[in-house]
């Protein structure tokens, strides 16, 4: 996580060329091609998993739900079917209809002998759609979508383009929710479906299983109807039980991407002016972080960065971070990490480079470690942030950092830190206090590198974060030859002498 420093200054004024989007059919474009937005396509507005949600479906008209100051834009179908009896028809597996007697309602899935078979058939349709995505077949992907629902078609066309831009390598549906069957003259099917996904890697851990030990996942509420040619998706919306890190930046559609050599940068349409510039900047940062990755035994296949508006910043991956922060890295499962940057807090090229390099420092420390669906700053934050700062400055002395004045104030205060191992300040803390914490971590890691050697420091980081099999004391004994308390006392004194 990167915090705005007290000395933050935007002095660059550099602006990118016109942003580009990937062509929806080309799976791995070297140069993204512009795509004209579909006027029927719903405009995505970020939502948060912490706030109450209404189950709304893409279909007939656009509806906006506003809760706690954040808007959720989704598209709804026509009037909901009541499921009441007269003339009510449901198809059985053979496609032959039967009519419920007047005064009867449809059976619930629990006592409906046909619902299990229907669930299997619908799941097969969704599996075929997922397979089409993975073989880069747009026609096959859209074949399962109701052509009479242009907004739904536009959403899935947009999702396809996003998945290809993000180098999708895994995508699978799982029926995870309750089933609501409502029909009138034909069969309709509604249920929650988990989608496990994987980007860039040949395969995801856990064989596609959702959860901390498997693939990252999202949850959607899907509505399908039975047509002459089979089942078609006619609506898609949010689940009443979203995952911990929803929504993802791409989940609501409307994303535009720029592709660099090692990094893909995305933003929502209308907020994408800098993505081409940032992709080039991020490639330079990646060249540095790749060196650290090699020394730590980390191997991020590709870095992904999302540029967020202020509303999106607090919504994507259910961040909810307070003011002042401008970069976050999320370990969304055991093997993948995503980075989000707050557009309004990014300065010019040099400032953006420092923020990106900091966040990618988190990625290389945690990528593939089995941390599992937690922000990557949950384990000894002072060390995590200190190492990310060290990577950001690429080994330059901590005294040259823009947080050095904050550390000077801390050291000279009546209550200086007495140990390296200090807790993160609360989110209500003032910016100077948080800057002192970040700076303290940077000086701590710099001390380890300068007093004991950079290889020893990297070994310590590797043992603490990548193997996660050691306490601070054991890792210090192994890499520095001293107990952690002795290391801490030595570095606290070393830091004080710098001022």
UniProtKB/TrEMBL annotation:
Keywords: Membrane, Transmembrane, Transmembrane helix. Residues 1-51 are annotated as: Disordered. Residues 21-39 have a biased composition (Pro residues). Residues 1-10 have a biased composition (Polar residues). The chain crosses the membrane at residues 56-76. This is Uncharacterized protein.
